Amino acid sequence: MRLLVLTLLFLSGPVGAADFRILVGHGGPVMDAAVAPDGARALTASFDNSVGLWTLGSDDVRWLEGHEAAVKTVIFLSDTSAASSGDDFAVLIWDLRTGAPMLRLNGHRGQVQSLAVSPDGSHLASASWDGTVGLWDVSTGTNIAMLRGHEASVNDVIFSPDGTRLYSASADGTIRQWDVETATETRRVVQHGFGVNTLLLGKGWMAYGALDGGTRVIDLASDTELADLTLDRRPILSMALSPDQSEIAVGDGQGFVMTVATNDWSVTGDYQAAASGPVWALAYTADGASIVAGGIDDAAYIWPAHNDLDAPIMGTSKRGFLKDPGQMSNGERQFRRKCSICHSLSDDGARRAGPTLAGVFGRKAGTVPGYLYSDTVAKLGINWNEHTIDQLFDLGPDHFIPGSKMPMQRITKPEDRRDLIEYLRENT
Known about the structure:
The chain is mostly beta strands and 428 residues long. It has helices at residues 2-11, 330-338, 375-378, 386-395, 397-400, 414-427; strands spanning 21-24, 30-35, 41-46, 50-55, 61-65, 71-76, 81-86, 91-95, 100-105, 112-117, 123-128, 132-137, 143-148, 154-159, 165-170, 174-179, 184-191, 196-201, 205-210, 215-219, 225-228, 236-241, 247-252, 256-261, 267-272, 279-284, 290-295, 299-304. The strands form 7 sheets. A 4-stranded antiparallel β-sheet has the order 1-28-27-26. A 4-stranded antiparallel β-sheet has the order 2-3-4-5, with no helix packed on it.
Protein backbone atom coordinates (compact mmCIF):
# COMPACT_ATOMS: atom_id res chain seq x y z
CA MET A 1 0.00 0.00 0.00
CA ARG A 2 2.80 2.41 0.85
CA LEU A 3 4.46 1.83 -2.54
CA LEU A 4 1.12 2.34 -4.33
CA VAL A 5 0.55 5.66 -2.55
CA LEU A 6 4.02 6.87 -3.45
CA THR A 7 3.55 5.84 -7.07
CA LEU A 8 0.26 7.72 -7.29
CA LEU A 9 1.89 10.75 -5.67
CA PHE A 10 4.58 10.79 -8.33
CA LEU A 11 2.21 10.23 -11.24
CA SER A 12 -0.21 12.92 -10.08
CA GLY A 13 2.11 15.70 -11.32
CA PRO A 14 4.63 18.17 -9.93
CA VAL A 15 5.47 17.79 -6.27
CA GLY A 16 7.53 19.66 -3.74
CA ALA A 17 11.32 19.35 -3.62
CA ALA A 18 11.35 17.04 -0.61
CA ASP A 19 8.32 14.87 -1.44
CA PHE A 20 8.61 11.25 -2.52
CA ARG A 21 8.72 10.45 -6.21
CA ILE A 22 9.26 7.26 -8.18
CA LEU A 23 10.64 7.13 -11.72
CA VAL A 24 8.89 4.10 -13.23
CA GLY A 25 9.58 2.50 -16.59
CA HIS A 26 12.91 0.67 -16.66
CA GLY A 27 12.96 -3.08 -17.21
CA GLY A 28 16.01 -3.84 -15.10
CA PRO A 29 17.92 -2.63 -12.04
CA VAL A 30 18.96 1.04 -11.99
CA MET A 31 22.74 1.29 -11.93
CA ASP A 32 23.39 5.06 -11.95
CA ALA A 33 21.65 8.44 -11.86
CA ALA A 34 22.53 12.05 -12.61
CA VAL A 35 20.65 15.34 -12.18
CA ALA A 36 21.03 18.30 -14.53
CA PRO A 37 22.53 21.46 -12.96
CA ASP A 38 19.24 23.33 -13.49
CA GLY A 39 17.39 20.59 -11.58
CA ALA A 40 14.75 20.13 -14.26
CA ARG A 41 15.86 16.75 -15.60
CA ALA A 42 17.47 13.51 -14.47
CA LEU A 43 19.22 10.64 -16.23
CA THR A 44 19.09 7.00 -15.17
CA ALA A 45 21.21 4.09 -16.43
CA SER A 46 19.78 0.59 -16.31
CA PHE A 47 20.53 -3.08 -16.78
CA ASP A 48 17.82 -3.00 -19.48
CA ASN A 49 20.40 -1.49 -21.91
CA SER A 50 18.74 1.92 -21.88
CA VAL A 51 19.11 5.43 -20.48
CA GLY A 52 16.04 7.27 -19.18
CA LEU A 53 15.84 11.08 -19.58
CA TRP A 54 13.24 12.28 -17.07
CA THR A 55 11.53 15.63 -16.67
CA LEU A 56 11.35 15.89 -12.88
CA GLY A 57 8.00 16.73 -11.38
CA SER A 58 6.12 15.02 -14.22
CA ASP A 59 5.76 11.56 -15.74
CA ASP A 60 7.57 12.58 -18.94
CA VAL A 61 10.46 10.31 -19.96
CA ARG A 62 12.45 9.85 -23.17
CA TRP A 63 14.30 6.57 -23.70
CA LEU A 64 17.81 6.79 -25.12
CA GLU A 65 18.52 3.55 -27.01
CA GLY A 66 21.84 2.56 -28.52
CA HIS A 67 23.77 0.45 -26.02
CA GLU A 68 24.09 -3.26 -26.71
CA ALA A 69 24.38 -4.32 -23.06
CA ALA A 70 23.69 -3.07 -19.55
CA VAL A 71 24.32 0.65 -18.99
CA LYS A 72 26.40 1.24 -15.86
CA THR A 73 26.91 5.01 -15.72
CA VAL A 74 25.52 8.25 -17.14
CA ILE A 75 26.40 11.95 -16.83
CA PHE A 76 25.24 15.30 -18.20
CA LEU A 77 27.89 16.99 -20.37
CA SER A 78 25.87 20.16 -21.01
CA ASP A 79 22.25 21.30 -21.24
CA THR A 80 21.94 19.50 -24.58
CA SER A 81 24.30 16.53 -24.32
CA ALA A 82 25.07 13.55 -22.08
CA ALA A 83 27.35 10.52 -22.02
CA SER A 84 26.77 6.91 -20.95
CA SER A 85 28.70 3.66 -20.88
CA GLY A 86 28.42 0.08 -19.75
CA ASP A 87 28.92 -3.59 -20.47
CA ASP A 88 29.21 -3.20 -24.26
CA PHE A 89 32.67 -1.58 -23.75
CA ALA A 90 31.48 1.61 -25.49
CA VAL A 91 30.90 5.24 -24.48
CA LEU A 92 27.97 6.98 -26.19
CA ILE A 93 27.58 10.76 -26.40
CA TRP A 94 23.92 11.76 -26.77
CA ASP A 95 22.11 14.73 -28.29
CA LEU A 96 19.41 15.29 -25.67
CA ARG A 97 17.35 17.38 -28.10
CA THR A 98 16.81 14.45 -30.44
CA GLY A 99 17.49 11.50 -28.13
CA ALA A 100 19.99 10.09 -30.63
CA PRO A 101 23.65 9.17 -30.09
CA MET A 102 26.04 11.64 -31.74
CA LEU A 103 29.29 9.77 -31.12
CA ARG A 104 30.31 6.24 -30.17
CA LEU A 105 33.70 6.04 -28.48
CA ASN A 106 35.37 2.67 -28.94
CA GLY A 107 38.69 1.59 -27.52
CA HIS A 108 38.10 -0.17 -24.23
CA ARG A 109 38.28 -3.96 -23.99
CA GLY A 110 36.16 -4.32 -20.88
CA GLN A 111 33.00 -2.82 -19.43
CA VAL A 112 33.15 0.92 -18.79
CA GLN A 113 32.14 1.46 -15.19
CA SER A 114 32.40 5.22 -14.68
CA LEU A 115 32.63 8.52 -16.58
CA ALA A 116 33.77 12.04 -15.65
CA VAL A 117 33.76 15.31 -17.59
CA SER A 118 36.36 18.04 -17.12
CA PRO A 119 35.14 21.32 -15.56
CA ASP A 120 35.35 23.13 -18.91
CA GLY A 121 33.48 20.33 -20.70
CA SER A 122 36.27 19.65 -23.19
CA HIS A 123 37.49 16.26 -21.95
CA LEU A 124 35.80 13.02 -20.97
CA ALA A 125 37.42 10.33 -18.84
CA SER A 126 36.29 6.69 -18.75
CA ALA A 127 37.14 4.03 -16.16
CA SER A 128 37.14 0.48 -17.48
CA TRP A 129 37.43 -3.03 -16.15
CA ASP A 130 40.16 -3.57 -18.75
CA GLY A 131 42.45 -1.77 -16.28
CA THR A 132 42.71 1.50 -18.21
CA VAL A 133 41.40 5.05 -18.04
CA GLY A 134 40.37 6.54 -21.36
CA LEU A 135 40.84 10.26 -22.05
CA TRP A 136 38.67 11.62 -24.87
CA ASP A 137 37.95 14.85 -26.74
CA VAL A 138 34.24 15.51 -26.16
CA SER A 139 33.62 17.46 -29.37
CA THR A 140 35.17 14.93 -31.75
CA GLY A 141 35.21 11.68 -29.79
CA THR A 142 38.93 11.32 -30.46
CA ASN A 143 40.86 9.18 -28.02
CA ILE A 144 43.62 11.37 -26.55
CA ALA A 145 45.22 8.65 -24.44
CA MET A 146 44.70 5.38 -22.62
CA LEU A 147 46.17 5.74 -19.13
CA ARG A 148 47.80 2.49 -18.03
CA GLY A 149 49.27 1.50 -14.70
CA HIS A 150 46.49 -0.06 -12.62
CA GLU A 151 46.88 -3.79 -12.01
CA ALA A 152 43.14 -4.56 -11.99
CA SER A 153 39.82 -3.12 -13.12
CA VAL A 154 39.30 0.64 -12.76
CA ASN A 155 36.03 1.43 -10.98
CA ASP A 156 35.84 5.23 -10.82
CA VAL A 157 37.43 8.37 -12.19
CA ILE A 158 37.12 12.08 -11.40
CA PHE A 159 38.73 15.36 -12.53
CA SER A 160 40.27 17.90 -10.19
CA PRO A 161 38.35 21.22 -9.91
CA ASP A 162 40.82 22.96 -12.25
CA GLY A 163 40.80 20.09 -14.76
CA THR A 164 44.58 19.60 -14.77
CA ARG A 165 44.58 16.35 -12.80
CA LEU A 166 42.63 13.13 -12.92
CA TYR A 167 42.09 10.62 -10.10
CA SER A 168 41.27 6.95 -10.64
CA ALA A 169 40.18 4.22 -8.22
CA SER A 170 40.81 0.54 -8.85
CA ALA A 171 40.17 -2.97 -7.64
CA ASP A 172 43.94 -3.14 -7.11
CA GLY A 173 43.37 -1.05 -3.95
CA THR A 174 44.98 2.14 -5.25
CA ILE A 175 43.86 5.66 -6.03
CA ARG A 176 46.20 7.25 -8.56
CA GLN A 177 46.70 10.83 -9.71
CA TRP A 178 47.34 11.59 -13.39
CA ASP A 179 48.50 14.73 -15.19
CA VAL A 180 45.92 15.40 -17.91
CA GLU A 181 48.24 17.32 -20.26
CA THR A 182 50.98 14.70 -20.32
CA ALA A 183 48.71 11.67 -19.68
CA THR A 184 51.14 10.34 -17.07
CA GLU A 185 50.77 9.06 -13.52
CA THR A 186 52.17 11.57 -11.03
CA ARG A 187 51.55 9.94 -7.66
CA ARG A 188 49.76 7.21 -5.75
CA VAL A 189 47.33 8.90 -3.39
CA VAL A 190 45.98 5.82 -1.56
CA GLN A 191 47.14 2.24 -1.16
CA HIS A 192 44.18 0.39 0.34
CA GLY A 193 44.08 -3.27 1.28
CA PHE A 194 40.85 -3.84 -0.65
CA GLY A 195 39.50 -2.61 -3.97
CA VAL A 196 38.31 1.01 -4.12
CA ASN A 197 34.90 1.39 -5.77
CA THR A 198 33.97 5.07 -5.72
CA LEU A 199 35.45 8.58 -5.34
CA LEU A 200 34.36 12.12 -4.46
CA LEU A 201 36.35 15.36 -4.58
CA GLY A 202 35.58 18.49 -2.59
CA LYS A 203 37.49 21.62 -1.65
CA GLY A 204 40.87 20.16 -0.77
CA TRP A 205 39.60 16.74 0.24
CA MET A 206 38.89 13.34 -1.29
CA ALA A 207 36.40 10.76 -0.03
CA TYR A 208 36.49 7.14 -1.15
CA GLY A 209 34.53 3.95 -0.56
CA ALA A 210 35.98 0.45 -0.72
CA LEU A 211 35.02 -3.17 -1.08
CA ASP A 212 35.60 -3.91 2.62
CA GLY A 213 33.12 -1.21 3.71
CA GLY A 214 35.82 1.37 4.35
CA THR A 215 34.65 4.98 3.89
CA ARG A 216 37.40 7.51 4.44
CA VAL A 217 38.22 11.16 3.78
CA ILE A 218 41.75 12.46 3.22
CA ASP A 219 43.32 15.89 2.89
CA LEU A 220 44.75 16.09 -0.63
CA ALA A 221 47.54 18.51 0.30
CA SER A 222 49.02 16.34 3.04
CA ASP A 223 47.38 12.91 2.42
CA THR A 224 46.39 12.88 6.11
CA GLU A 225 43.12 11.26 7.12
CA LEU A 226 40.35 13.73 7.97
CA ALA A 227 37.66 11.18 8.83
CA ASP A 228 36.97 7.47 9.00
CA LEU A 229 33.26 6.94 8.34
CA THR A 230 33.49 3.15 8.16
CA LEU A 231 30.50 1.22 9.48
CA ASP A 232 29.92 -2.51 9.67
CA ARG A 233 28.42 -2.67 6.16
CA ARG A 234 30.02 -3.65 2.89
CA PRO A 235 30.78 -3.01 0.11
CA ILE A 236 30.55 0.75 -0.50
CA LEU A 237 29.02 1.08 -3.97
CA SER A 238 28.01 4.70 -4.54
CA MET A 239 28.69 8.24 -3.38
CA ALA A 240 27.21 11.65 -4.16
CA LEU A 241 28.17 15.24 -3.32
CA SER A 242 25.51 17.88 -2.73
CA PRO A 243 25.66 20.86 -5.13
CA ASP A 244 26.93 23.24 -2.42
CA GLN A 245 29.43 20.60 -1.20
CA SER A 246 28.00 20.76 2.31
CA GLU A 247 27.11 17.06 2.43
CA ILE A 248 27.96 13.69 0.95
CA ALA A 249 25.78 10.60 0.65
CA VAL A 250 27.15 7.03 0.75
CA GLY A 251 25.32 3.90 -0.46
CA ASP A 252 26.32 0.32 0.32
CA GLY A 253 25.65 -3.25 -0.66
CA GLN A 254 23.26 -3.86 2.25
CA GLY A 255 20.77 -1.18 1.22
CA PHE A 256 21.79 1.66 3.56
CA VAL A 257 22.35 5.35 2.77
CA MET A 258 24.48 7.49 5.10
CA THR A 259 24.67 11.30 4.83
CA VAL A 260 27.63 13.22 6.25
CA ALA A 261 28.24 16.97 6.78
CA THR A 262 31.53 18.06 5.17
CA ASN A 263 32.24 20.91 7.62
CA ASP A 264 32.96 18.55 10.53
CA TRP A 265 32.41 15.07 9.00
CA SER A 266 29.56 14.29 11.36
CA VAL A 267 26.89 11.77 10.31
CA THR A 268 23.64 13.65 9.62
CA GLY A 269 21.55 10.64 8.59
CA ASP A 270 21.76 6.86 8.32
CA TYR A 271 18.83 4.83 7.10
CA GLN A 272 17.96 1.63 5.27
CA ALA A 273 16.90 2.73 1.80
CA ALA A 274 16.34 -0.77 0.40
CA ALA A 275 14.75 -3.79 2.02
CA SER A 276 17.07 -6.01 0.04
CA GLY A 277 19.96 -5.55 -2.31
CA PRO A 278 22.45 -2.77 -3.02
CA VAL A 279 22.28 0.98 -3.55
CA TRP A 280 24.09 1.39 -6.87
CA ALA A 281 22.89 4.86 -7.84
CA LEU A 282 22.98 8.10 -5.84
CA ALA A 283 22.61 11.74 -6.96
CA TYR A 284 21.49 14.90 -5.19
CA THR A 285 18.81 17.10 -6.72
CA ALA A 286 19.94 20.61 -7.69
CA ASP A 287 18.67 22.14 -4.45
CA GLY A 288 20.36 19.46 -2.33
CA ALA A 289 17.10 18.68 -0.55
CA SER A 290 16.51 15.27 -2.11
CA ILE A 291 18.43 12.23 -3.33
CA VAL A 292 17.82 10.15 -6.45
CA ALA A 293 18.68 6.51 -5.78
CA GLY A 294 18.56 3.21 -7.61
CA GLY A 295 19.22 -0.43 -6.90
CA ILE A 296 17.81 -3.83 -7.65
CA ASP A 297 14.31 -2.47 -8.47
CA ASP A 298 13.24 -1.52 -12.01
CA ALA A 299 12.72 2.08 -10.83
CA ALA A 300 14.58 5.05 -9.40
CA TYR A 301 13.41 6.65 -6.17
CA ILE A 302 13.56 10.25 -4.98
CA TRP A 303 13.22 11.03 -1.29
CA PRO A 304 14.35 13.73 1.16
CA ALA A 305 18.12 13.63 1.68
CA HIS A 306 17.58 13.06 5.43
CA ASN A 307 15.05 10.30 5.07
CA ASP A 308 13.07 9.51 8.22
CA LEU A 309 10.93 6.68 6.84
CA ASP A 310 9.88 4.00 9.28
CA ALA A 311 10.30 1.39 6.51
CA PRO A 312 12.46 1.10 3.41
CA ILE A 313 11.10 1.91 -0.05
CA MET A 314 13.37 0.10 -2.50
CA GLY A 315 13.34 -3.67 -2.72
CA THR A 316 9.96 -4.20 -1.03
CA SER A 317 8.86 -6.62 -3.76
CA LYS A 318 11.26 -9.53 -4.06
CA ARG A 319 12.81 -10.09 -7.49
CA GLY A 320 12.21 -13.44 -9.14
CA PHE A 321 15.91 -14.28 -9.28
CA LEU A 322 16.06 -13.96 -5.48
CA LYS A 323 13.24 -16.44 -4.88
CA ASP A 324 13.92 -19.25 -2.40
CA PRO A 325 15.38 -22.17 -4.42
CA GLY A 326 13.44 -24.61 -2.28
CA GLN A 327 10.16 -23.20 -3.63
CA MET A 328 11.05 -23.81 -7.29
CA SER A 329 11.41 -26.70 -9.67
CA ASN A 330 14.88 -27.14 -11.17
CA GLY A 331 13.69 -25.70 -14.49
CA GLU A 332 12.30 -22.58 -12.85
CA ARG A 333 15.45 -22.24 -10.76
CA GLN A 334 17.57 -22.26 -13.93
CA PHE A 335 15.32 -19.62 -15.53
CA ARG A 336 15.26 -17.37 -12.45
CA ARG A 337 19.04 -17.49 -12.03
CA LYS A 338 20.12 -17.40 -15.69
CA CYS A 339 17.38 -15.64 -17.65
CA SER A 340 14.79 -13.69 -15.64
CA ILE A 341 16.73 -10.46 -15.08
CA CYS A 342 16.89 -9.96 -18.89
CA HIS A 343 13.84 -11.79 -20.26
CA SER A 344 10.13 -12.01 -19.49
CA LEU A 345 7.98 -15.06 -20.21
CA SER A 346 5.00 -13.05 -21.43
CA ASP A 347 4.57 -10.43 -24.12
CA ASP A 348 3.76 -7.70 -21.58
CA GLY A 349 5.59 -4.87 -23.37
CA ALA A 350 7.86 -4.26 -20.37
CA ARG A 351 11.37 -3.00 -21.03
CA ARG A 352 14.01 -5.70 -20.60
CA ALA A 353 17.65 -6.15 -21.52
CA GLY A 354 16.60 -9.08 -23.73
CA PRO A 355 13.55 -9.77 -25.92
CA THR A 356 10.45 -11.49 -24.56
CA LEU A 357 10.51 -15.29 -24.58
CA ALA A 358 6.77 -15.49 -25.29
CA GLY A 359 6.34 -17.77 -28.33
CA VAL A 360 10.07 -18.49 -28.49
CA PHE A 361 9.73 -22.08 -29.75
CA GLY A 362 9.68 -22.03 -33.54
CA ARG A 363 10.52 -18.32 -33.72
CA LYS A 364 13.32 -17.14 -35.99
CA ALA A 365 16.16 -15.58 -34.01
CA GLY A 366 16.27 -11.79 -34.12
CA THR A 367 12.63 -11.18 -35.05
CA VAL A 368 10.81 -9.81 -31.98
CA PRO A 369 9.32 -6.48 -33.16
CA GLY A 370 10.75 -3.37 -31.48
CA TYR A 371 13.78 -5.03 -29.90
CA LEU A 372 17.23 -3.70 -30.88
CA TYR A 373 19.23 -6.81 -31.78
CA SER A 374 22.95 -7.01 -32.43
CA ASP A 375 23.82 -7.51 -36.10
CA THR A 376 25.06 -11.01 -35.29
CA VAL A 377 21.69 -12.23 -33.98
CA ALA A 378 19.71 -10.39 -36.66
CA LYS A 379 21.67 -12.30 -39.34
CA LEU A 380 21.83 -15.64 -37.53
CA GLY A 381 19.10 -17.32 -39.57
CA ILE A 382 18.15 -20.05 -37.07
CA ASN A 383 14.89 -20.96 -35.37
CA TRP A 384 14.71 -21.43 -31.62
CA ASN A 385 13.84 -24.99 -30.64
CA GLU A 386 14.95 -27.63 -28.14
CA HIS A 387 18.20 -28.26 -30.03
CA THR A 388 19.27 -24.65 -30.56
CA ILE A 389 18.38 -23.57 -27.00
CA ASP A 390 20.35 -26.55 -25.67
CA GLN A 391 23.35 -25.55 -27.81
CA LEU A 392 23.09 -21.93 -26.67
CA PHE A 393 23.62 -22.86 -23.03
CA ASP A 394 25.90 -25.83 -23.66
CA LEU A 395 28.45 -23.79 -25.62
CA GLY A 396 27.63 -20.39 -24.08
CA PRO A 397 26.31 -17.36 -26.01
CA ASP A 398 29.84 -16.07 -26.66
CA HIS A 399 30.62 -19.25 -28.66
CA PHE A 400 27.21 -20.10 -30.09
CA ILE A 401 26.50 -16.52 -31.21
CA PRO A 402 29.81 -14.59 -31.20
CA GLY A 403 29.06 -10.89 -30.94
CA SER A 404 25.74 -11.40 -29.17
CA LYS A 405 24.66 -9.02 -26.38
CA MET A 406 23.86 -12.00 -24.14
CA PRO A 407 26.05 -12.34 -21.02
CA MET A 408 28.72 -15.03 -21.15
CA GLN A 409 27.24 -17.95 -19.23
CA ARG A 410 26.81 -21.70 -19.59
CA ILE A 411 24.63 -24.40 -18.09
CA THR A 412 27.04 -27.30 -18.02
CA LYS A 413 24.81 -30.13 -16.80
CA PRO A 414 22.60 -31.68 -19.54
CA GLU A 415 19.79 -32.34 -17.05
CA ASP A 416 19.74 -28.65 -16.03
CA ARG A 417 19.46 -27.59 -19.68
CA ARG A 418 16.72 -30.16 -20.24
CA ASP A 419 14.74 -28.91 -17.23
CA LEU A 420 15.12 -25.28 -18.35
CA ILE A 421 13.86 -26.11 -21.85
CA GLU A 422 10.86 -27.94 -20.43
CA TYR A 423 10.08 -25.01 -18.13
CA LEU A 424 10.26 -22.59 -21.07
CA ARG A 425 8.01 -24.82 -23.15
CA GLU A 426 5.38 -24.88 -20.40
CA ASN A 427 5.50 -21.15 -19.67
CA THR A 428 6.02 -19.40 -23.01
